[in-house]
Amino acid sequence: MALILGIETSCDETAASVVQDGRLILSNVVASQIALHAQYGGVFPEMASREHVLKIVPVIEQALRDAGLKFQDLTAVAVTNGPGLAGSLLVGVNTAKAIAYANDLPLIGINHLEGHIYANWLEATASALPENPFPLIALIVSGGHSELVLMRGHNDYELIGRTLDDAAGEAFDKVARLVGLGYPGGPAIQQAAVAGNPAAVKLPRAWLRGSYNFSFSGLKTAVLHTVEDLKRQGPLPVADIAASFQAAITDVLIEKTEQAARDFGAKQILLAGGVAANARLRERMVAEADLPVLVPPPKLCIDNGAMIAAAAWWHIRQGEKSGLDLDVVPSLQLPSREKRLAEDGNAKPGT
Ligand code: KG4
Ligand code: ZN
């Protein structure tokens, strides 16, 4: 039995969790900084690091207490070492090193995006996630990311598409600000959209045919112009704008994910990241895709330590671990398709 402590501090949540064998959550503690950053309309990096410094020890102590465990009972310590804010990542990584060193435990650095994907394995039933769901397509949509990833097995990632400009969550946050809704924008837009008509405002969809990449900056600019026009005409129809924006972004996310799933003969689609908490995206992806779609419960879509411990388990099983010289990598990426093909000798870079 493996008991892994997962630590996550890449952005604005200080989180720690103990997960048994990559699936069973024994504890999951998240100290959110949303209230702190709301006054700035977004994450204020220096404030985030300082808040992590204050919260990290109590959060980890709570995670162990909730699980009824001591450091000595653990099998390994896993920590997000990128991508994310450097100052925030440093707090988690250094704390994880101290715990590993003091208790003679293996340490493993985990890519935050891998964590989001593996949130799907937490407490998933065998029928929802079979032994071999590969190849699968994962759509990771969060405040900093919009990525399509092909997985042919555990720990086997190929980044096939990404955003060329704004991330999906960033678009939700910016549009929410334009129409006077609070931070974070995603939940606020979702709520406002319930009373709106998704066909009320005509907004563009950037299909970028022939690639799996996304672009949301044109959509955001279109909302800006619409808001300026409508403001001149009277009170802003916030619900209609929210519903129309949500429909536009969801249309693109679903269509491109389905296209990738068809092209790569995927057996399963996984959703992940903060935007996967969006009720409309979840409902529509499940209803419209031809394949089984799995999405973690909303509380596991947003940043948490359980997803980091879940991803770590598949590495620990292979005997992988990091050294105590583990560094933070703010721009850490998953392996790209081009890089993979070059490594496999099937293609040369640039061909
Ligand atoms: O994964 P996450 O907690 O942090 C990052 O790794 O970025 O994602 C946060 C993002 C924010 O942009 C937030 O607005 C968005 O996820 N989000 C949502 C919803 N809940 C959170 N977007 C749309 N609908 C939601 N219900
Ligand atoms: Zn995240």
Throw out a few tags for this protein.
alpha/beta, Nucleotidyltransferase, domain 5, binds 5'-O-[(R)-(carboxyoxy)(hydroxy)phosphoryl]adenosine, binds zinc ion, five-stranded mixed sheet
Question: What do you see in this structure?
Answer:
Residues 347-351 have low confidence and may be disordered. Helix 5 crosses helix 6 (185-193), helix 5 runs parallel beside helix 7 and helix 6 packs across helix 8 (238-263). The longest helix is centred in the last third of the chain and has 26 residues, at 238-263. It contains twelve helices and ten strands. It has helices spanning 34-38, 45-67, 86-103, 112-118, 168-178, 185-193, 217-233, 238-263, 279-288, 298-301, 306-316, 337-344; strands spanning 3-8, 13-20, 24-32, 76-82, 107-111, 136-141, 146-153, 156-162, 268-272, 293-294. The N and C termini lie far apart (46 Å). The strands form two sheets. It has a five-stranded mixed beta sheet with strand order 3-2-1-4-5, sandwiched between helices. The protein is globular and about 65 Å long. It is of the alpha/beta class. The chain has two domains: 3-121 and 300-332, 2-Layer Sandwich (Nucleotidyltransferase, domain 5), CATH 3.30.420; 131-295, Nucleotidyltransferase, domain 5. Helices cover 42% and strands 18% of the residues. The structure holds 5'-O-[(R)-(carboxyoxy)(hydroxy)phosphoryl]adenosine and zinc ion. Residues 11, 142-144, 169, 172-173, 184-187, 190, 273-275, 277-278, 302-303 line the site of 5'-O-[(R)-(carboxyoxy)(hydroxy)phosphoryl]adenosine. Zinc ion is lined by residues 112, 116, 142, 273-274, 303.
